[in-house]
Amino acid sequence: MMEHLHNIPTEFLWLFGALVLLLGIASLIGAILVRRPGDEKKLASRRNLVERVNAWWVMVAILAVALLTGPTMTLVLFALASFFALREFITLTPSRPGDRLPLSLAFFMVLPLQFVLIGMHRYGLFAIFIPVYAFLLLPSIAALRSDIDDFLSRSAKQQWGLMVTVYCLSHAPALLMLPLPGAEGRNALLLFYLLLVVQMSDVMQYVFGKLFGRTKIAPVVSPSKTVEGFLGGGLAAVAIGGAMWWITPFTPLQSAAISGVIVMMGFLGGLTLSAVKRSLGAKDWGVMIEGHGGMLDRTDSICFAAPVFFHIVRYFYSGS
Amino acid sequence: VELVPVYLDNLHRSLPKGALLPLPVVCTVRFGAPLHRIEGEDKEVFCERARAAVIALAAA
């Protein structure tokens, strides 16, 4: 499985080198900012900035190791991310004794199998396994236990969890199994591209929002999302994505348009999952990543952007 | 002797009595401030106070 990466290490070294430089600058700015005087609120938000940058170092390091070691490690990494995200989702979801078996199956059978199917390049089964088999059989098991209190709301919540944290998220590493005529062996770069645009969009929206944010988009759902932040950050991410066309099968213009779709879906993912989270009565999904909240706080935008990006690439660039 | 109140949150969901497999939900351990003996306090009153300390942690 290693041969996938043999013809691209130079590009990866450049990309990760650029990220290390970027994070180095961010760390430097953070170190200068926390030393400057300010009121308690400003200091807290600067400390949060430093925590976020530190967490980014760790996340980039883990991603670099996984991408450079090959598809199997990348799949394992995303399966783990999926596992922790599902865990956060189910923790906030009320369940009854009748849900134990279906939930155990979701964690220990459906989730690993979904990633194994990607590893085996079974696109047909990968695309329908959860929507057909898991979505029909798991509630059936709960029904067989004749535990009918709040049945619809319980199973609907579990299906949301499984759909977002496993099915949607698994489309990111699924990019590794797409045939790319004319760009063989460059799948990992596409995955890198997706993650870069999504995360740059998040970071830039955060930065632009902090600097110029005035008009809140959905104050009740997500108080930090502003029109100025979304437009400024989104355009910056589109510019970065467009400039990265050379690692993809896209032309510069196509790359900018596709980045626009990624930014839009990522934004909707953050917003929608924030609404889901709040309707479950929480502010953060968890406390796993210092400064960022939980795994699902960091991956919410990937969950929505990955399936759409995957299918754009599959439909237009995969020759199928 | 100090007695520390400890509350294990979500454990009943993760591994209830009789379950074979733990459900991997996030569980939290919360520690409270140590309880000291108050001179002249009898056993019942102390137990009630300890119970209240654990319940207070559950609501946190």
Keywords:
heterodimer; A: mainly alpha; 10 helices; B: 60 residues; alpha+beta; two-stranded antiparallel ribbon; 13% strand; elongated
General description of the model:
The complex is a heterodimer of chains A (320) and B (60). The two termini of chain A are 23 Å apart. By secondary structure, chain A is mainly α. The mean pLDDT of chain A is 90. Chain A is built from 10 helices and no strands. Chain A has helices at residues 9-35, 40-69, 71-92, 100-119, 123-144, 151-170, 187-212, 227-243, 252-279, 295-317. Chain A is globular and about 60 Å long. In chain B, 35% of the residues lie in helices and 13% in strands. Chain B has a two-stranded antiparallel ribbon. With 60 residues, chain B is α+β, with helices and mostly antiparallel strands. The radius of gyration of chain B is 15 Å and the shape is elongated. Chain B starts with 5 loop residues before the first strand and ends with a helix. The A-B interface holds A 83, 87-88, 90-91, 95, 97, 100, 103-104, 107-108, 286 and B 10, 13, 16, 19, 21, 23-26.
List the helices and strands and how they pair.
The complex is a heterodimer of chains A (320) and B (60).
Chain A: H1 9-35, H2 40-69, H3 71-92, H4 100-119, H5 123-144, H6 151-170, H7 187-212, H8 227-243, H9 252-279, H10 295-317
Helix pairs in contact in A: 1-2, 2-3, 3-4, 3-6, 4-5, 4-6, 5-6, 6-10, 7-8, 7-9, 7-10, 8-9, 9-10
Chain B: E1 6-9, H1 11-14, E2 28-31, H2 43-59
Antiparallel strand pairs in B: 1-2
| Low-pLDDT segments of chain B | none
Mean pLDDT across all residues of chain A, rounded?
A: 90
What integer is the average pLDDT of chain B? 88
Derived structural class of chain A:
mainly alpha
Residues in helices of chain B, as a percent range: 25-40%
Strand fraction of chain B equals: 5-15%
- Terminal residue distance of chain B: 25 Å
Radius of gyration of chain A: 20 Å
* Oligomeric form: heterodimer
Distance between the termini of chain A: 23 Å
Please work out how many helical segments of chain A DSSP would assign: 10
Order of helices and strands of chain A: HHHHHHHHHH
What percent of residues of chain A adopt helix (DSSP H or I)? over 70%
The major β-sheet of chain A equals: none
Q: How many extended strands of chain B? A: 2
Largest interface: A-B, 13 and 9 residues
Compute the CA-based radius of gyration of chain B. 15 Å
What's the main sheet of chain B like? 2 strands, antiparallel
Instruction: Give the number of DSSP strands of chain A.
Output: 0
Sequence stretches where pLDDT stays below 50 over 5 or more residues of chain A: none
Along the chain, the helix and strand elements of chain B come as: EHEH
